[in-house]
Amino acid sequence: MATLTTRTTPAAPTPRRSALPSALPSVLHRLEQRAAGETRWLLGHALPRMGVQSSARSGDLHGRFIAATDDAETWRLIEEIRAQGALHKSRFAYVTTSLPVVKEVLTSNDVRSGVEFTPDSGLWSRAARWAFSSTPIGPLTPPSLLVTEPPDHTRYRKLVTRVFSVRAVQGLRDRTEQIATELLDDLEARARRSPHTPVDLVAEYCALLPVTVIAEILGVPTAERERVLRFGTAAAPSLDLGLTRGTFHQVEGALREFEEWLTTHIAAVRRDPGEDLLSQLVTAQDDDGALLTDAELKATAGLVLAAGFETTVNLLSNGIALLAEHPAQRQRLLDEPGLWPNAVDEVLRFDPPVLLTGRTVERDTEVAGHTVRRGSMITTLLAGANRDPEVFTDPHSFDVARANAGDHVAFSSGRHYCLGAALARMEGEVGLRAIWDRFPDLALARGAARRPTRILRGWEQLPATLVR
């Protein structure tokens, strides 16, 4: 018997709404952000690096100086530039190693902080305005104190100075000494267990001391301090020129992550302020009763981290290395401990944490007897000025008792003088004195390496044996 089968026509599927239109804005935003980042790298790093390399090949001293990767070559080129006079005109910028001229430039109202490599008009200028409008908050982006000028700079600095006063910093000394003692206790226990095994003083001491202090200043919970340390380390190259594409995007990623973290952290501080300095900044009012905005607070906190942490790591590592290399100077400090504050200034003079800073001329002006046109760039070689033979006797000698060691410009000068100078000096004095008091036989081991950053000067690794 035949079987009757019935075939039914399947129901038409219910039309599904495409997900593409709703996802499209997000996709386009990511593509735009990626394109903006690539443009920032191209204009801010790739093209300037090509220009520097070209000028270096042609023999231009400034180009050779920027391109130099060897520390000895850096110092040789500083002296070659010095030999050209108080103000040397290079292919891209004026350069000076003269301490009086450096101070003249940094205090002038005819210049502003930062440098620009983008043409004033045309396609490149429009591309730059578009791309840099989405730059993550960092040490070199407004409203950071490093790159703002009066009247905004005056308002920010006045508010922040109230919090970072010398008195406030001195109030941190006891806590800094306690932190140093705890870190050295750990190092001593390790050294006793394995006396011949070197420890990396940068990772185990020079970084941990200032990051702990800065974390307490910012009210960062103990559990998140390792995160702050990573942010600071990752963002350090942000001050440099000519970053590779990979390094640039790593830096921007770290800055964005730090900005997101700061947004959450500042909101928590607003809800429940404590006794830390960030809590005081959150509630600080100017003469008109206005508070710092969230953007201003994030920029300030980011600058405190970058300037107050990274440069102090360099100060401590440079100081330890110098004293290890100069046993007679070290012995003098052990015999005359009252020299420690002066010794910190001599470390800052002889091997400063920041190599140079740049300025752009706002209007035609005169510098060191030269007419300098609007738009010109001036590179002030802070390290060179700190060894100006017209100011410092026997400038290439390290002398902890040098009478005018404090005349250096390691903290810049003028309205952009480092806000954290008092904090850095205090941490440098406490940190260096504590480690040499505890380990007078400290000896550097093989494997020391300078940081790859160009503007920030310090040690990336500083292996040492602590006891004999």
Automatic annotation (TrEMBL):
PROSITE patterns in the record, alphabetically?
CYTOCHROME_P450 (PS00086)
Please tell me whether the keyword Lipoprotein is annotated for this protein: no
Q: Which organism is it from?
A: Nocardioides nanhaiensis
Q: Which UniProt keywords apply?
A: Heme, Iron, Metal-binding, Monooxygenase, Oxidoreductase
- Kindly give the PANTHER family that the UniProt entry links to this protein: BIOTIN BIOSYNTHESIS CYTOCHROME P450 (PTHR46696:SF4), P450, PUTATIVE (EUROFUNG)-RELATED (PTHR46696)
Q: What is this protein's record name?
A: Cytochrome P450
Record-stated family: Belongs to the cytochrome P450 family.
User: InterPro entries in the record, alphabetically?
Assistant: Cyt_P450, Cyt_P450_B, Cyt_P450_CS, Cyt_P450_sf
